[in-house]
Each structure stands twice: as C-alpha cells, then as structure tokens.
Amino acid sequence: MERRCDICQENEAIYTDYSRGVSLCTNCLKSSIRRRAWAVLENELQEGDKIVVAHSGGKDSSLALYITKEFIDTHPDMKLNLVSLTIDEGTFYRKASIELAKKLAEKLGIRYIVFTMEDIHGISIEDIKVNIPKNWRRSVCTYCGVLRRQAINAVARELGASVVITGHNLDDIVQTSLMNIARGDVNALVKTLRHERRIEEGLIPRIRPLKYVYEREIAALVIALGIPAHLGKCPFTQGMRIGIRRVIDELEDEASGSKIRALRSFYLITRSIRPRVEIKRCKVCGEPTTADLCKACQFKLELSDFFGKDLLKPPSFEKASSEKEWIWSNR
C-alpha cells in the first residue's frame, strides 16, 4: 500500500524527511527545497545581476540551475540574466555529464557554454592522472579541485559575470567544514561558511542556493522531476573527504538532523572570527591569491617535473573574451 504525503495528504510520498518525521510527495518536496533555495537567492542576488551557474551536469548543479531559472522567471522586475557554464576537465566521467548539462540548458532555454581545462590551463585532469607517479602524495582530485575552482572564477570574471552560483549542498559544506577543522585551518573554515557578498578584486561572489538542502533530497527531486543530470559520484574523489562523508552520514542515520545542526553550530562558532587574509596577485598568472604564487601555479610548477615541460604560464581566456557579448545578448 502506497504511503500518502504527510503535507498535502493527496499524492504518493517519494521521500521521507527523517529530521522532521514526515514523508513528502514530489510537489511538496519541491516546494520545501524551493523555499530554502529561494530564500538564499532573495537575500544574495541583486537587481541586474549577470549570473553564471557552474553547471557540471551532476544532480546538484543541475538542480541549482533549474531552481535559479524558476526564480528568475518569477522575478522579472530584478532583470537578471543567466548562463550555464561547464568546465570540462577532460575525463570520461565529465563527457557523459556534459551531454546532460547541455540537454537541461536547452530544455530551460538557457545559453550554455563549455570551456575545457586544457583551453585554460594547458593540461587536462586525464593528463595529470597519467603523469603523476603512483602513490604520489597528492591525489588527482586535489589538483582538479584547485584548477577547476580557479577556472570557474576566472572564466566567469572574463565573461563579465557579477555572481557565480554553485550546486554545493548541505552535505558538501559540512564535510568541507569538518575537513578544515581537522586541518586546523581557521581561515579556510571561515571562508567556507562566510559567503557575504563583498567586492574583492578579481574574485566573483558565489551563491550556494542549496546550502540548506540535503544531498539525498536533491537526488530524490531530480529523479522525480526527470531533470537531465548525472547521478553518480566522480571516480577521482579520494582522501579525507571520503572518510568524513562516511562519519557524518553514519551520525545522521543515528541522529536525524545532525548535519543541519552541525552547520548552524559552525556558523555560530565562526560568526565573530575575522580571517587574517590579504588578497594579493599571483606573480605568475595575476590571479587573486593569499601567497606570492597562487595554489594553481604552485601545482603547475610541481607537475612540470612529471610532464617534462614548463607548465607555469598564465591561464588563457581568449575564448571567454571572444564570446562575452554573445553570451549576455538577448535571444
């Protein structure tokens, strides 16, 4: 016998929210997620914003794009403009998700653009996987995260975006926060949690509309709505995050609502902390950094020995510059 939604009492329930002890149908789950996501968008978006959604094609970024498009359509007075951006790291995993990302953007009537990691940095993640020694002290995932983050920020800036939207969810933020605590990196912890919209030269403000939404809620809604999205996890994910994810998932199973309570506690702990960070410019590529060399250039310098050639050069943004006007023009 099917279970009815505890909210509307009409439709079949597809998801159980154990933290509240209620089962929800597709419509009520969507309303719940949209309410939390739109509250973030209403608070952080500004009139006339040019929005780039970092759209990998995975479930999280796909739902972030879907929710943001709905928000824009119902707030025409804000005169918001939206494009979908994928950074192709050059892996087989990404090739599959790119097709889904493109399909969703077309379905929503949103301009879609792809930049390859090789276009920007001169190397792909597949190249790194092949060239680093076995059992090297850094994983492919570590290199990918740094190079991709810089690429998203830099491409969005060159395109003239005023804000970047990412698909980071509640699970992601709690995991990253615990990793920063384990490393004793207070500045990184504050940076993870404090996303006030402020002007820092070269850095595009980021908005995370799904930061109060569980990953499993996202998966359930994406499947229920038939949103084109890759549901699997990246096969390159390694290191501390896997262990941290396992621990907090087990904690959530034992005590429902632990993740959201942990996030609220992190916010309270860091509320009065002022990070000691000075934004400078990388001496090689000119990108924003807190050191003489940005982390991307540090990694490229390190990788040069394995590739047998000098990889230390500024990223290329020719494609972004050439497509800037086309991206934001009206259809």
Low-confidence runs: none
- Count of DSSP H/I helices: 13
Major pleated sheet = 5 strands, parallel
Largest beta sheet: what is the strand line-up? Answer: 5-4-3-6-7
Euclidean distance between termini CA atoms: 49 Å
N-to-C series of helices and strands? EEHEHEHEHHHEHHEHHHEEHH
What's the CATH superfamily, by name? HUPs
**Secondary structure: helix percent:** 40-55%
Query: For the record, what CATH class applies?
Result: Alpha Beta
Radius of gyration: 20 Å
**CATH arch. level architecture:** 3-Layer(aba) Sandwich
How many discrete structural domains?
A: 1
How much of the polypeptide forms β-strand, as a percent range? 5-15%
The averaged pLDDT comes out at 91
**Could you please say which CATH topology applies here?**
Rossmann fold
Report the count of strand segments. Answer: 9
What class, by secondary structure content?
alpha/beta
